Structure formats: structure tokens, C-alpha cells
Amino acid sequence: MGQVAFVIHVEPKSRNRTDAALRDADARLAEAVGLTAAIHLNVVQALVAPLARPTPATLLGTGKVEEIAILAKAEEPDVIIVNAHLTPVQQRNLEKAWNSKVLDRTAVILEIFGERAATKEGRLQVELAHLNYQRSRLVRSWTHLERQRGGFGFLGGPGESQIESDRRLIAERIVRIKAELEKVKRTRSLGRQARKKVPFPVVALVGYTNAGKSTLFNRLTESEVLAKDLLFATLDPTMRGIKLPQGTRIILSDTVGFIADLPTELVAAFRATLEEVLEADVILHIRDAAHDESAAQKADVLQVLDELGADRPMLEVLNKIDLLEPEQRAGMLSHNGRRPAIAVSALTGDGVPDLLAALERAVTRDNITVKLKLDAADGSALAFAYRHAQVLERRDRGGKISLSLRIHPDDLGRFESRFPRKILIEQGVGT
To answer: C-alpha angle 205/208/214, rounded to 5°?
Structure first.
């Protein structure tokens, strides 16, 4: 499978009991192994390293560092993954102690994002995060700090050192990337404004990485977005329009997966990607119902949404019920539509009709019902009504067409302008 790797999960003994109850050390280690496998490394050793008190020089205590050094000498891994955030000094000291390349959690996630980003914006965001990360670690790349790059001699004294040159080049590149990202963000903003002119609600799929968002997205939209059993299979937002059972049209948005302890560099870098969530009318929170840490993953996602300020109506979807025992699956599917979470299998389609019905109720709950009478010969007016509203009822009589429509309150002005004195509000709030 390529290069050989060790995975070391650092588990602080001070982690409070509430957190420990939600996500234990073995689960965190398993996730770290999954992250490592996602960058095509062959994990030959995986262990939990309890941490009573962080050591400034190496994070881990001397005994644990020596223990891993013995294992590393015997198996000679190409890289050792430390599932924690390491300072540049700690990373350098561990590499010396273990005689192996060392990557921390942030570096691994950056590597995954670098492989998966497909759009221009995604690649720029990844590069920006990587440069910010790299800038603090240049000392690892240059041990020859005495080496000087000769100046022109106009001011006297030594020239610019190599590490100073690299820092300057990185700083300049960061400025250029930020400028490019601003242009991309303006383009995305114009796209959102254009979508707002079309009265289609936006529904954003969110969830922990590998919860099955893209598989469900493909099921609902009949498209072929990359959907694999991989952490962070989706990075760039994808949008598709779909029609719900009662005729309501919506725009569905697939987003990047969330993860516990997301590096701060990536939280900032991918905020623009998550702007689609902030603009959504409804959020679909997709959970992996078959995962042992489903409750912990839910807590992580809700925390990120809270930090983003994503105060939107939310539907909770329990996915992957096909992996549960038949009794558990039947019990989930037997609940009526008032159940707080909707059980589905994106793979088999079980429960998807219930999800679509619940989604339609969620996006139309504030809609108003109006009556509209048109001339049967006015084809453009009829097309407008069908294009911009949900047609509940149609009656044709004596050259006239009577329509009962459900529209969003924001679109009432549009209809009153298009059909002056022909609109009759029948119901204030849709059900």
C-alpha cells in the first residue's frame, strides 16, 4: 500500500468525564487511523499514548517517547502520525528521537484536503491554510541558519538569510491568495444573489465526515458526486435543483464534512465554503446511525454550527440504517412523521420518501396560499405561475383558469406586481 506509518493517539488524562463518555480513546485512535489511511499510508502500528501532563519539548513524556523509539527502530516506519497538535519544536524533537518523519493531526488533515479539493476556491483555501501552517515551521526546513543570501551591499552588513527569504515569499503568496479568494467570494456572492431572485429554498446537507451526505445527495438528486467510504470525500460544495413530491422546487447543497478538533487554520480557511450553510433556508443534519460514536459526532457538528452562527431550521436524518440489525431498523422506520429524527438508508432508499415529505413540510411551513384567476389564452402568465409557485389546485372553466398557489411571503410582491388586482390571499401561513 505504499509508505508505512505508525499512528499515536495522545489521550490527555485530564479530559473531563463528559467528553470521555461521548468519545473514548479507542474511537479517537480509530478515527486517526482512518485519517492516515485517507492519505494512502499503510498503518502497521496504532496505539494510545496517555498523557498526564504535556511536556514542552516533546508533548509526550520521556518514557513514552523512548518506548515508541524502540518500536520505530524495529519497524522503521516512513512516517509517524501523532494525533494531536504539535508545536514546531515538539515536532522537530520527536523526529530526532524517533529518527522518522513526524506529522501531527493538522498536517494530516491538510494533506487530505490538498488531495481532495477540486475547485479553484477549494485549492486556494487549502493552500492558504497550508502556508499559514508552514510559516511557523520553517525552522524545520532550514537547519543552516548561518547561510546568507548575499545582498547588493548598498546598506552594508550581511544579506537576507534563507529563512527570512522563505518567510517573505510565503507572506507574499498569502497576500496574493487572499486577494484571489476575495474575487472568488464576490463571484459566489453574486451567484447567491442570482439564486435569491429564483424563489427556490436552499437546503444544506451537513454532518460529520463520512456520515453519508454525498450518497444521500446522489440519491435525492440522481447525480454522481464522489461518494466513498473515506474521511473528507467531499470538500467543495455542490448544488443541484430537485422537485419535492408536492411540486416544491428546492436547491440542495452538499458541504464539507465536519470533524472533531478541526485545525484552526482550516476553520478560518473553509469558512467561505460553509457560507452556503449560513444562507440555507433549512439544514439537513446527516448522522451515521450505525457508528458507535454517533452521539459524539452529533455534538461536534452542533458545536461547529453554533460557532458559525447557523441559526436555521434543522431536520435530523439518521443515515445508514441498512447497517443496523433488522429489529433496530424496523423500529426506526415504524415511527410516524412527528419523530424528531428521520431514519433513512441513502444506499437502499429506505425512508427517503418520508424524508422528502418532511423536507417539503419544513421548506413550505411559512408559505402563504393565494388564489389567482387567469385567461386560458394567457400562456405566459400560466407558465409564470407554474414556474414560481407550488400549484395546489387548478380549475378550467369558461375560458378561465383558477389556480390555488402556495408561495413564499417574500414572493408576494412579485406576484402582485405581475398580476395586479388578481391575487387573493387565502391563507396566511402554509402548513
So the answer is: 45
In the three-class reduction of DSSP (H, G, I as helix; E, B as strand; rest coil), residue 284 is classed as: strand
257 within 8 A of 210, measured Cβ to Cβ = yes
* Angle in degrees, CA 95, 144, 58, rounded to 5: 25
Between the CA of residue 182 and those of 119, 255, 269, what are the distances in Å? 15, 20, 12
The grid coordinates of residue 50 equal 496517555
Give the predicted TM-score (pTM) of the model: 0.72
Query: What are residue 47's DSSP bridge partners?
Result: 8
Task: For domain 201-364, give the fold.
Answer: Rossmann fold (3.40.50)
* Strands lying side by side in the sheet with 249-254: 238-243, 249-254, 202-207, 282-288, 314-319, 341-343
Q: Please answer whether residues 215 and 227 qualify as being in contact, where contact means their C-beta atoms are separated by less than 8 angstroms.
A: yes
Q: Which one, of 13, 4, 3, lies nearest residue 53 by Cα? A: 13
**Virtual CA dihedral for 292, 220, 352, 339, nearest 10 degrees?**
70
Phi and psi based region of residue 400 (left: phi greater than 0; alpha: psi -120 to 50; beta: remaining): beta
Higher-confidence residue of 333 and 326: namely: 326
Q: Following DSSP, what letter does each residue of 46-99 receive, concatenated? A: EEEEEESS-BTTTBS-HHHHHHHHHHHHHH--SEEEEESPPPHHHHHHHHHHHT
Backbone phi, psi, residue 289, to 5°: -65, -20
Q: pLDDT digit string (tens) for 30-70? A: 999 999 998 889 999 999 999 999 999 999 999 999 999 99
Kindly indicate the confidence band of residue 154, based on its pLDDT and cuts at 50, 70 and 90. very low
Number of Cβ atoms within 10 Å of the Cβ of 396: 9
368-427: CATH, from 3.20.20, 3.40.1090, 3.30.70, 1.25.40: 3.30.70
| 4-112 CATH | 3.40.50.11060
CB 312 within 8 A of CB 345: no
Q: Which of 239, 271, 231 is nearest to 121 (CA)?
A: 271
Distance separating alpha carbons of residues 299 and 13, to the nearest angstrom: 21
pLDDT band for position 27 (50/70/90)?
Answer: confident
359 three-state secondary structure: helix
* Cα 352 to chain centroid, rounded: 22
